[in-house]
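Structure ticket #2291
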Amino acid sequence: MRANYRMQRLFIDAPLAAGATVEPDKAQSNYLLNVLRLSEGAELLIFNGRDGEWRATLRQPGKKQAALDLAEQVRPQPEPSGLVYCFAPLKSGRLDYMVQKAVEMGAGVLQPVMTHHTQVPKINVERMAANAREAAEQCGILSIPECREPQKLDRLLADWDPERRLIFCDEDAATNNPLATLQGIPDAPLGVIIGPEGGFSDTEREQLHALPFVTAIPLGPRILRADTAAVAALAVIQATAGDWD
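Resolution: structure written out below.
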C-alpha cells in the first residue's frame, strides 16, 4: 500500500497498537501544537519503524501537551531494506543531505567509514539518526535505517560478510557505464561504498580490488561530488540489482 502524502506523518519511538495512546515528547508536542497549529481532533499518521503506520487523533490534555489516540493501522510494517550504505563522512550540511537521500533511496544501514582522505574525523551519529527519521517522515518510509558508529576501512573490510556483495564506486574505472557490471551481479545481499571528497587512496583501491566479494563500478564520465555520487550510485544500483527490479 502506498503512503498517504496528504496527512502529516510523525515518528514516535513507542509501541503502537489499536486503542493505545502515545504521548509525543516536548519538542514534538510543540511542533504539533505551535508549528503545525493542529487542533484537537486533527488526524495524522504515526510510525515507529517496527509496528507499521497508524492513523491517530490528536488530543490536548494540557496547554503545552499533546496526546495521540491510535485508531487503526493503515499500513503494515514491511521487511527492512538489506542494503548497507557505507560512506566517508562529509561536512555537516552535505552529510545531512547525503543521509536524507540515502534513506529515500532505500538504504537499510548507514555505516560511516574512515578512509585515508576522509576530511571529517568525527561524526555525530545522533544527528545522522535524526536526519534519517526526518527523511522517513517526509517520504512515507516505514523502516528507519540502522545508524552505526564509524569504522576504519580496514576493520570494515575485515569484518565484512563475504556473502554480501560490496559495490565499490571506483572513480578510476576504465569504462563509464556501470550497467553491464551491475546486471551481472547474482542475486545476493548488497552493500555499496562511496569514498571521500579526495577519493580513495591508491592503497585503498588496491585493497578493495583484491577482495573477492567486491565489485567495482564507474559512475559515468564526470567527476561527481561525494554527495552527488551517493545519489547516482544508489539509483543505478537499485534500478539494476536492487529493489526497483
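Closing remark: The longest helix spans residues 125-139.
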